DNA sequence: TATCTCGGCTA
DNA sequence: TAGCCGAGATA
């Protein structure tokens, strides 16, 4: 388990927003409830795989809220989850629906998880179509502080990752065999889950330091943050994941942040170099 | 060289 | 704000 923690995707009506969808929760190290650890052990999915680096947040588990008792239930596989998500609007989820993987499942079972146990949840849209057979829909959560919360990729049966609808369209026109097999654009959705608390996503144009008083701004941000938020920001600053991607600018930013952390007095000096 | 990741641009 | 994709770093 890495420093960044895991995410939980939950599907069902959200108490806070009264919407139907899926949620993603950030968890801090050691906070995952015991029953959730158990549930995770049963989950088979790329998205639920432990991230070796511990730097890239991942989806921790899939959960659905029962439309009757409103308790959250773990979904053991992404396949089940995707099926439920696709049809949850027309076919609400009930505890009894879990009998497919837990024969004795019922509303009288104790609560498995509550969104309140976690600091952050992200809402997935209901009605997202099941990926075509042999294709996989990947949700890749971005690190805290990124301009976007996550990315969606579709992995083709040949292993190619497609990151937008136009790319899928292009791929299908280059590979008509998939079209012949019934694959079409309507089976793809690149809608990412929306965090209920936008704190993990940097606002557009927002920098980590204000122009007026960089060091104070930074301290304020960290001081105002909930423990998990400062945790995430600190993680990103101290040891960002430059596994592929990233730019020289980012690398310099990292060097800068690292320096800023070890040498707080140098905030102003370095910031002037990076204010643009 | 392919892949991964981040972030900027645009609607 | 979401979708798209360019570009740099890494494997």
Automatic annotation (TrEMBL):
Residues 210-220 have a biased composition (Polar residues). GO terms for molecular function: DNA binding; zinc ion binding. Residues 56-115 form the CW-type domain. Residues 121-195 form the MBD domain. SMART domains: MBD (SM00391). PROSITE patterns: MBD, ZF_CW. Residues 208-234 are annotated as: Disordered. Residues 221-234 have a biased composition (Basic residues). Its main location: nucleus. It is found in: Nucleus. Keywords: DNA-binding, Metal-binding, Nucleus, Transcription, Transcription regulation, Zinc, Zinc-finger. SUPFAM superfamilies: DNA-binding domain (SSF54171). InterPro entries: DNA-bd_dom_sf, Methyl_CpG_DNA-bd, Znf_CW. This is Uncharacterized protein. The lineage of its organism: Eukaryota, Viridiplantae, Streptophyta, Embryophyta, Tracheophyta.
């Amino acid at each position: 388990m890495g420093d960044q923690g895991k995410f939980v995707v939950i599907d069902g009506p959200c108490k806070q927003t009264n919407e139907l969808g899926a949620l993603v929760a950030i968890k801090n190290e050691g906070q995952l409830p015991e029953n959730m650890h158990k549930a995770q052990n049963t989950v088979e999915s790329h998205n639920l795989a432990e991230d070796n680096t511990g730097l890239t947040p991942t989806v921790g588990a899939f959960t659905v809220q029962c439309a009757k008792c409103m308790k959250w239930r773990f979904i053991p596989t992404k396949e089940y989850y995707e099926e439920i998500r696709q049809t949850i609007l027309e076919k609400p989820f009930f505890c009894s629906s879990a009998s497919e993987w837990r024969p004795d499942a019922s509303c009288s079972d104790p609560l498995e998880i509550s969104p309140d146990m976690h600091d952050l949840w992200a809402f997935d849209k209901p009605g997202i179509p099941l990926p075509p057979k042999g294709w996989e829909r990947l949700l890749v959560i971005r690190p805290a502080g990124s301009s976007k919360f996550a990315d969606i990729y579709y992995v083709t049966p040949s292993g190619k990752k497609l990151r937008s609808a136009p790319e899928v369209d292009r791929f299908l026109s280059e590979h008509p065999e998939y079209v012949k097999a019934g694959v079409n654009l309507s089976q793809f959705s690149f809608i990412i889950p929306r965090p209920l608390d936008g704190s993990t996503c940097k606002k557009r144009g927002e920098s980590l330091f204000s122009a007026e008083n960089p060091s104070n701004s930074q301290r304020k941000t960290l001081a105002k943050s909930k423990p998990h938020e400062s945790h995430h920001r600190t993680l990103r600053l101290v040891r960002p994941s430059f596994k592929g991607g990233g730019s020289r600018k980012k690398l310099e930013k990292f060097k800068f942040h690292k320096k800023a952390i070890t040498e707080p007095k140098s905030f102003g000096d370095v910031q002037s170099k990076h204010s643009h």
